[in-house]
């Protein structure tokens, strides 16, 4: 039994139709308003409820627990936020709860009055172990319009979650959006393996230093490769010697301290070697010194592709790393890689920027941009695709499905999910 289920029963009044409500103290109970569900904040579970007990009408808050003794286990008796609780809704009534003036807080036990059909659907949804997700038997039957709207809402939740890191970086960089973009790009150029190392690296170089040296790609390479300790090698290659010399000069000039975490090469394809990715990032800032402003102004993926259309120095045509020569091959950022940058950096940054600057938040433009990208494919997304073909239509849907799987399905948050609620309400 989850407390969320009791929230659902109270909010939607899923009681036996013929059952007259009585408090555990034996008085008649009439629910005039269940109140406002408090999902994210501390304090009672429902604010501003209105009930009638006997002949007395009460206005105040409602607290919900599995057992009445949880009131004391959670130390609500010491929290002024709970002084205005007018009803304690519980599953098991194992102890009476008192206010500070020693008067009993009326309680309502749901165990014997909950609608049996709703309880059976709850048991089936959460108690029977599924192969993939709890609603796997129902997922193919959800109405297309209902599912699409829920996935759009879930995608916005994912943008909100990604905004947490952006806002943290914005605070650390004194509201410098260019610096935030640089750090986010560093993180995402590192992908899963080197994302944290690249983010740490970005924090060791003040963005003003990057901005001052954008005209010389060798300086940008020297800064990024040097601060990641990738230049700490013995070599006879003149290009690398030049980078080492430039790095020592810049390191001394700006009093830089290298990042503590060194990037990894293990099990990476050559295209994702950290040395090459950092050289590509240097080329981006060499070509686009006003990258943030340009990205904010763009609304089309093809315009973004042009911004990241880079050309690396001759050295990189025969190298993926600094230590080994390879067959000649031009190195450019692939569209698939740029799509990842759009998904994980550019769209979240646009979303957060519009909210922070109080510009009108244009969901249509953001949705159109990410919906124009091909969907991502991984094991989490394939769960839904196997249950309902064509669910994963584009990158917006794949991002929404990732959020749905990790933040709802994997955590058994079915009663916080619109789809789970529809199953309990038998309105699939």
UniProtKB/TrEMBL annotation:
<dbReference type="InterPro" id="IPR021272">
    <property type="entry name" value="DUF2851"/>
</dbReference>
<protein>
    <submittedName>
        <fullName>DUF2851 family protein</fullName>
    </submittedName>
</protein>
<dbReference type="Pfam" id="PF11013">
    <property type="entry name" value="DUF2851"/>
</dbReference>
């Amino acid at each position: 039994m989850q407390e969320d289920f009791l929230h659902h029963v109270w909010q939607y009044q899923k009681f036996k139709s013929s059952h007259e409500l009585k408090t555990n103290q034996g008085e008649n109970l009439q629910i005039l308003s269940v109140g406002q569900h408090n999902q994210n904040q501390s304090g009672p579970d429902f604010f501003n409820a209105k009930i009638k007990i006997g002949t007395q009408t009460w206005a105040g808050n409602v607290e919900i627990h599995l057992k009445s003794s949880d009131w004391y286990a959670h130390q609500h008796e010491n929290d002024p936020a709970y002084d205005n609780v007018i009803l304690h809704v519980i599953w098991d009534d194992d102890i009476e709860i008192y206010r500070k003036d020693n008067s009993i807080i009326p309680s309502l036990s749901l165990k014997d009055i909950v609608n049996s059909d709703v309880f059976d659907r709850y048991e089936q949804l959460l108690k029977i172990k599924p192969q993939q997700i709890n609603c796997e038997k129902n997922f193919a039957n959800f109405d297309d319009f209902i599912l699409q709207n829920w996935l759009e809402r879930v995608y916005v939740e994912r943008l909100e979650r990604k905004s947490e890191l952006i806002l943290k970086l914005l605070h650390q960089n004194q509201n410098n959006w260019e610096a935030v973009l640089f750090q986010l790009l560093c993180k995402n150029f590192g992908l899963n393996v080197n994302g944290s190392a690249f983010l740490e690296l970005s924090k060791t170089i003040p963005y003003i230093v990057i901005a001052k040296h954008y005209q010389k790609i060798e300086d940008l390479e020297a800064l990024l490769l040097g601060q990641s300790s990738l230049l700490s090698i013995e070599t006879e290659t003149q290009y690398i010697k030049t980078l080492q010399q430039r790095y020592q000069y810049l390191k001394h000039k700006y009093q830089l301290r290298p990042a503590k975490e060194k990037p990894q090469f293990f099990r990476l394809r050559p295209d994702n070697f950290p040395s090459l990715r950092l050289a590509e990032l240097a080329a981006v800032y060499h070509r686009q010194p006003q990258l943030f402003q340009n990205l904010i102004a763009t609304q089309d993926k093809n315009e973004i592709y042009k911004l990241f259309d880079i050309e690396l120095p001759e050295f990189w045509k025969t190298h993926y790393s600094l230590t080994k020569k390879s067959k000649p091959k031009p190195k450019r950022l692939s569209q698939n890689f740029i799509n990842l940058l759009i998904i994980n950096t550019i769209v979240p940054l646009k979303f957060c920027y519009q909210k922070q600057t109080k510009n009108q938040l244009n969901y249509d433009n953001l949705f159109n941009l990410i919906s124009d990208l091909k969907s991502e494919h991984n094991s989490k997304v394939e769960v839904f695709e196997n249950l309902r073909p064509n669910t994963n239509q584009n990158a917006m849907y794949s991002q929404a499905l990732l959020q749905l799987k990790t933040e709802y399905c994997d955590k058994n948050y079915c009663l916080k999910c619109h789809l789970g609620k529809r199953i309990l309400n038998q309105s699939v």
